[in-house]
Amino acid sequence: MILKVKVPSPGESINEVEISSWTVKNGEFVSKNQIIAELDSDKATLEITAEQSGIITILVEQGVKIPVGKIICTIDTSTNWPSPSAKKIINENRLIINNIKGSGKDGRITKKDCIDFMKKQSCNRSSIKRPLSSLRKKISDRLVSVKNQTAMLTTFNEVDMTEIILIRNQYNPSFQEKHEIKLGFMSFFTLASIRGLRLFPDVNAMISSNRENKINFNYFDSAILGMHKIMNRPIVIQKSIKIRPMMYLALSYDHRIIDGRESVGFLCSIKETLENPIQFLMKGNISNIPKILEL
């Protein structure tokens, strides 16, 4: 059976990705749930795993931009599987199974076959040079620039996403019907960030080239807000332990401009807004939700 592997959607509003790297070689044996590729989008890096074990055939080269839904490789699941001990050696050493001649029953590859093959290859060592993806190049340049030009610190907080999830679950069907896209969490974080920036405008500031003035902008990258995975965790609410969907927040900022008061205050405002969305996003009236969501 030939299994086709397609590019999944990495998130809302993303229609194209780039293959940043293949973690396996063409013709290599891959195991079920093994990571076979990494895809870059404008927002994140996505790992692709093998749905079944078999021989992989790569159809799209590294560095190529492709639309969501395109087939990037196939996995032949009908190949004679190597023995468990042989499969372990193959995966650990990234051996191409088609290059190994099996001596077991019906041509099955054994542990000895793998060891003999590796002995023959040990005298032929080589290095592999792979180009960086466009996203990785940009990240590399920006990180070096930030390190040389700023004094970066990071402050953390956590937010209870219960109320936002309730609103999202209730209004997502009608939102998707009207706008033809799912109602994501990013919209709520954007509104919360706008409120936070109004309260702490220095988070959107920069230092002038002569380092004598602080300039406030409508838009500037003085800080980056990181939103981690939502996970159910026990927390204490009014002296009782409750299980709530919690998310860690991380604000990395330029300490030359932003002090602890602004960074902590900004994160606290994000937390306050998301935990009380009716009060701070809907002007205290639940009937404003359809208007805010443009339903």
TrEMBL record:
Its cofactor is (R)-lipoate. This is Dihydrolipoamide acetyltransferase component of pyruvate dehydrogenase complex. InterPro entries: 2-oxoacid_dehydrogenase, 2-oxoacid_DH_actylTfrase, Biotin_lipoyl, CAT-like_dom_sf, E3-bd_dom_sf, PSBD, Single_hybrid_motif. One of its GO terms (molecular function) is dihydrolipoyllysine-residue succinyltransferase activity. Its EC number is 2.3.1.-. E2 component of the 2-oxoglutarate dehydrogenase (OGDH) complex which catalyzes the second step in the conversion of 2-oxoglutarate to succinyl-CoA and CO(2). Pfam families: 2-oxoacid_dh, Biotin_lipoyl, E3_binding. The keyword Amino-acid biosynthesis does not apply. It catalyses: N(6)-[(R)-dihydrolipoyl]-L-lysyl-[protein] + succinyl-CoA = N(6)-[(R)-S(8)-succinyldihydrolipoyl]-L-lysyl-[protein] + CoA. Belongs to the 2-oxoacid dehydrogenase family. One of its GO terms (biological process) is tricarboxylic acid cycle. GO terms for cellular component: cytosol. It comes from Blattabacterium sp. (Anaplecta sp.). Pathway: Amino-acid degradation; L-lysine degradation via saccharopine pathway; glutaryl-CoA from L-lysine: step 6/6. It is an enzyme of class 2 (transferase). Residues 2-76 form the Lipoyl-binding domain. It comes from the Bacteria. Residues 81-118 form the Peripheral subunit-binding (PSBD) domain.
